[in-house]
Amino acid sequence: MRNNWIPSTPLEQMANTEYDVLIIGTGAGGGAVTWRICEQWGKNEKKVGVVESGDFLLPTQAANIPTMNSERMNKLHEYVSKPLGRFNPEFQGAKQVFAFGGRTLFWNAITPRLNQLELRQWPVTVQEMESYYTIAERIMNVSREYTKGSQITEILLNRLQWKGITEAAPAPIAAELGPGIYGQEGSDVFFGAIDFFANALNHRPFDLTVKTRAVQVLVESGEVVGVKVLSSEKKPYILKAKTVVLSASTFETPRLLLHSGIKGKAIGHYLMNHSFVLATGTMSREEFPEPLGTLSILIPSTSDRHYQIQLRGPNGYFWYQPYQTKPFLKELEINFVCSGEVDPRFENKVTLDPYKTDEFGVPEVQIHFSYSEKDQAIIREIAGAIEQISSFCGISMHSKPGQPSICLMPPGDQNHDSGTCRMGMDPSTSAVNKYGQIHGVKGLYVADNSVIPSIGSANLTLSTVALAIRTADYIIHQDQERAFT
User: Is 67 exposed, middle or buried (CB count within 10 Å of its CB: 0-12, 13-18, 19+)?
Assistant: First the structure.
């Protein structure tokens, strides 16, 4: 069997089991919930089930595969992703990956925290988020050591800090950089959701099915009782569960909730995605001694700067690629990757198409999205900041044939979509409470990007994982309370 690197369970067997927790989706959120519950429950008799709509695709994050490089990885991602934006011109850059591990099979592993100014607006306290960020960083191997000893990173950091951009620092990256010791197994460098499931398996078994589409959440008397799923052959099954965690994605989670008739004024609304600006410049190789190293600098947002800027390179060699020979180049290409804040607005939303359904009979999504005047002002600020930072660093900006030197990418292209099941105290403006539970439905939770109430300008994976671990802890606590009553 080509996919025996992780145990899977026949759907018929899962239909004969009542699960204490059933998790829908295997991306960052679903993986984090599975790991935390398995870690905390250990070898007890409780039943944990996991449902993935896609198939097994890769056994690890794509950048860990020896035959992969940046070009091949981008081509593979384009080949396997579903271009959601093809039928949604207002969000034309959006793509989805339906596979075990989700989008973390292809993510760039940049894992900053949101700044405290942003977190103060959330229903979760800053102190609690700091605690769960620490847990998430530990399990994901997050550090700023990836570029340690890199001359290009150190020299450009010094230039930025000399010019007053003191917040600039090596980017935090989820990568295991230490060598194996004492015959220790494990060779992955970059973290992905599959690592969560591998870690979970070391604590206890769980049931996993792939190519299984969740089509309806089942609720009786205000309490979740299970999920209706369809196999790849379109055969229906009922998976019974005391607790259900939806981690299907910013688009698929509200889609499932709306199709299931779950009530909530905010479900599907408040869609966010960072504005995404790219730029490219060059520097002379003669400016840097050996070892040149890899460039990865993060300039985070501040109270006055409503965007973050990453400097990456040189020449596409950001990833660790042991078998790729790097030619000596007289000019080094430097990439700017910039994320701008976008306000949560009710009118930016995901709805169900009244006329189109997929092969499983579930309505397709329609996406309504636009930038506000404030969002557009931030985009203009980013363009000015790129020019300033390039001047500080000595980077010469240039444009490629047919492209401007600074390019605003299509909405949705950043893959930082979020907010469609946002967290909050008021059911009229939020879909879930501060623990990720759907308002008014006992035992039904959400743990993916969709719960994030505001996005600041930082990459979202670490925040999603921290919140998912917190939701798992709350589920465990609720289960313990039931056991004592």
Answer: exposed
Residue pLDDT, tens place only, 6-62: 999 999 999 999 999 999 999 999 999 999 999 999 989 999 999 999 999 999 999
Question: How many whole angstroms separate alpha carbon 428 and alpha carbon 88?
Answer: 26
Q: How confident is the model at residue 245 (pLDDT cuts 50, 70, 90)?
A: very high
Query: Do 144 and 477 contact (CB within 8 A), yes or no?
Result: no
The total of other beta-carbon atoms located within 10 Å of residue 414's CB is 22
- Tokens for 312, please give them: 């990456």
What's the fold here for domain 8-140+191-272+417-485?
A: FAD/NAD(P)-binding domain (3.50.50)
CA distance linking residue 173 with residue 372, whole number of Å: 31
Please tell me the predicted confidence (pLDDT) of residue 198.
Answer: 94
The pLDDT value given to residue 1: 40
Hey, what amino acid is at 383? A
pLDDT of amino acid 480? 85
Helix (H) or strand (E) holding 153: helix 151-162
Q: Do residues 274 and 341 make contact, with C-beta atoms less than 8 angstroms apart?
A: yes
pLDDT tens by residue, 93-102:
999 999 999 9
Domain ranges of the chain: 8-140+191-272+417-485, 146-175+275-340+372-410
Question: 28-41 vs 461-483: helix axis angle to the nearest 10?
Answer: 40
Of 445, 484, 458, the residue nearest 253 (C-alpha): 445
Beta bridge partners of 21: 48
390, 384 Cβ separation under 8 angstroms = no
Q: Which of 159-168, 239-248, 287-296 has the lowest mean pLDDT?
A: 287-296
d(CA 207, CA 119): 35
pLDDT tops 80 at residue 233: yes
Name the pairing type of β-strands 396-397 and 275-284.
antiparallel
Transcribe 322-372 into DSSP letters: TT------SEEEEEEEEEE-----TTSEEEEEEEEE-TTSPEEEEEE----
Does the pLDDT of residue 358 top 90, yes or no?
A: yes
